[in-house]
């Protein structure tokens, strides 16, 4: 799986991807900030999660709004289908009634 990851650290240093060759994590990718150097310090360079939480909450709210709009649209479509069926039945009744009227 290819996950998107920033190429620039929060401290404006460049981020480099490495692959672990240890027995505990063979082949596992890890990232390091060239400015800070150490892997543990890289996490300190990254922006705080709280910064993104506000954006995530905004997106969740927008998704809820869109889901509500979609549900309302679905209800309106169902109502329109019922009206169309009623109109077709009415048209059939009128055409049959007018046909009977012509015969008499």
Automatic annotation (TrEMBL):
Keywords: Membrane, Transmembrane, Transmembrane helix. The chain crosses the membrane at residues 82-103. This is Uncharacterized protein. It comes from Brassica carinata.
């Amino acid at each position: 799986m290819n996950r998107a990851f920033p190429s620039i650290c929060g401290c404006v240093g460049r981020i480099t991807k490495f692959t672990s060759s240890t027995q505990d994590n063979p082949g596992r990718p890890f990232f390091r900030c060239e400015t800070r150097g150490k892997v543990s310090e890289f996490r300190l360079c990254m922006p705080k999660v709280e910064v993104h939480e506000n954006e995530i909450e905004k997106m969740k709210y927008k998704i809820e709004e869109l889901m509500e709009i979609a549900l309302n649209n679905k209800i309106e479509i169902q109502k329109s289908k019922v009206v169309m069926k009623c109109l077709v039945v009415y048209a059939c009744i009128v055409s049959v009634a007018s046909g009977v009227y012509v015969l008499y």
